Fold this protein.
Amino acid sequence: MVDLLGQYEKIKSQVDKAILDVISSTAFINGPEVKSFQSELEKYLGVKHVIPCANGTDALQVAFMALGLKPGDEVITANFTYVATAEVIALLQLKPVLVDVEPDTFVLNPSAVEAAITPRTKAIVPVHLFGQCADMDAIMDIAKRHSLFVIEDNAQAIGADFYSSTGKNQKAGTIGTIGCTSFFPSKNLGCYGDGGAIFTNDDELASKLRMIVNHGQTVQYYHDEVGVNSRLDSIQAAVLRIKLQHLDEYANARRRVADAYDKAFREHKNLLIPVRSPKSSHVFHQYTLVLKNADRNELRKHLASKDIPAMIYYPVPLHLQKAYKDSRYTEGSFPVTEELCKNVLSLPIHTEMNDETLDYIIENVLNFFN
């Protein structure tokens, strides 16, 4: 699905030197590379504060901890997402309130969000799924009217732009109260291990977030908050500094692949191409088709026989997962999400894909239907 080796080989000399420099410095934790990466990412995103942490799930957890939510408080989020989004809500004994997504862009449906608000609702978590932004104008308007926090799950859309109706363009993850991202190796901005970050423009909130990721302390051995140990190590920061310089280039390479897929599949009766929202650029963390009147498993087997991977993101909606079963929800409660889970299929898309590979994938997808 991704070619991390090919990507590494293009920046090998820079990466190898950066890693060896960290090892030589022995500043493995919170060293200069972490501080430099933080500053460079703040500049790239146009956000006041970036707080690096150990992974994207920690980023979400720390965000909720900093907002002071209490057990039983309700948090609205998308049903069609990776489990980590709801996992941290449940872990902190908050109440996940799942809502359906848009059938064409796969992102949070603002009307469904509004309908799910109760007196116990405290926050909304829009997921910028597969590489483009949810409708942040609508979500921020809802949040403002109901005095709710907004925590953006930006694990899949770093670098995407949201085009506000106000005429102001903002990077994904910098619009809500807090934004969270992951630097898992396969992400658009991925390190060579685990990593994550939290974003905010709120000075006071940033101070609290920094305290929580560092055991609840600002001065060593003096703990003002219940915290966690969640740090981005210096070697990963060194890798990310180099890859950040190429992030827009990587997004353009992914768009080139997506454009070719779009052209090949746009008129196909059995394939719906991903819709690109006019309110957001798309950085294509995934290229996800929706199959119509076609056997997904057989197509996947066919592609596998040609050494072409294809993934299902996500086969089971959250409300039908054993860990998240809730008497409020049954099969049929979320028709859009359930239909997507039965019919989506993601094709390989990455920064190193050449025309020969791209043509081979397209040809074999089309051959399945002939």
